[in-house]
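To whoever is on call:

I kicked off a structure prediction for a single chain this morning and the downstream step that reads the tokens threw a length-mismatch warning. I double-checked the sequence; it's 505 residues and nothing unusual in it as far as I can see. Pasting both halves so you can look.
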Amino acid sequence: MKSPQPADGELQELLADLLDGELSEDARRRLNERLSSDPQAQALYLDFCETHAALSWEHGLVIADLEPSTRDIVPPRTDSISWTRAWTILATLAATFLVAAIAWYSDSDEVVEPTAGGAVVAQLVSRIDAVLTADSLPWETNEIRVGGYEIERGLVQLEFASGVSVLIEAPARFDAVSAERLVLHAGRLSANVPPEGVGFTVETPEADVVDFGTEFSVEVGGEESEVHVFSGHVQVKPKTESGSEQADAIDLRTEQAIRISEATRQPAGIDLATDRFIRSINEPQKQYPMLVKQLGFVAYYRMPIRGGGLACSPKKYAGEMLMGEGTRPAFAPGIVGASLRVGGRSVGRGAHIENPPRLTSGHFSLVAWVYADSRPPGGTVATDVSDGDGRFALSLDRNGRLTGTVTTNEDKQVSVSDLSSVPLNSWQFVVLTLDGKQLRMYRNGDPLVSTPCHSMTSRQPSTLWMGTSAEPQRFWNGRIDELALFDRALAADEIAKLYQAAGTE
């Protein structure tokens, strides 16, 4: 059990005013300053949150059984009570009222269009191929002011003064109400809230989502709202049909998620959507990319979220993103960080590289993670074939099976195909290798098929394509991630280690 935090006169006075409903605007700012700069105040606040969450669990307030909360707190007895017990009750009340009060102070029912003189509530720190409008006009400045906005395309990242970071994915409509409150009318967002950002609230048509310092995502669409908590603790307050908050709130903790429909207004537990939300624009440094580097790649496409091009290591093999009609960004959550999204509602139409990686040994390996939304015949993962001339291709055949083809130094084409159609809506690890004797295909670390094959042609192609090909309408429909090319055939044990590494930190 944690020992109680030392007494803090100022913080206790702020909390007392909060409990009495007398917290002034200056006092609220001071409370936020303490949480921003004072580690002891942050620790005390975290104790509040942990105590509140623990008591919520004990009294059935968490969504484990999706029963609404009933906040029955036993009044203190007139006889002596231990300091710890008194502090626990105070902590529970403070944690609850702290969030409620901050949200109350920042609430506003009137939303106006942004104006040059309006209050600045956040900064636009990243635009990824984004079309952001206010009142149907392009919003070009990086200052986000009070008012309503629409993201017609791409991805934006907002940063609030409290340190709260919010990623919003097109298509989306939202209102910036204050530095502590955002209304999401439609679309997806992911929020990362530090301790000093406690009380940040995302309002949807069906509920208010109040944060206790956490990482969470919200999606609004189809007359329902979903809340997914990846780390920490949020409080969800469903609304009545009139739009007012219900008396009962629901606590969600790490790896919990709910859906609230407009029709019933009743929360229902759902699975955490780990593959749906873009939660960061930075690529994590995990074991998998480090192992790819150790194996000596020629070119490695991690598919990081970038504007204007396809990144590669080394940079000389970087490429150009291809765009088309759509609303979703050309990036999506990947197996490690982000991935390239192609087809569907995405603007992504793949990518092409005008300076393809040089493969000179006649042996090679193509390594990629693929996620199929459907199985279009000819859907291409990667190829450098144009006008019938090239070295390799990895694509779907007419039966939806992944098929690898290489052109040998004798100008013969040799192919291997998976034994079954590619699974939908799940990540698959695919490797194609050629050692001058056998062309092999692996999936999810296991060898599937092989066929005799001589070395690959040494002719250098003019273009490398990903997610599409030189032939129109051969788009992959789904995602591609962590694509790497090697100038040698990876061994079976190396491939198995790569597959295992993707699931580790």
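Update from on-call: the warning came from a stale cache, not from the record. Cleared it. Sanity check on the structure: Residues 52-111 have pLDDT under 50 and may be disordered.
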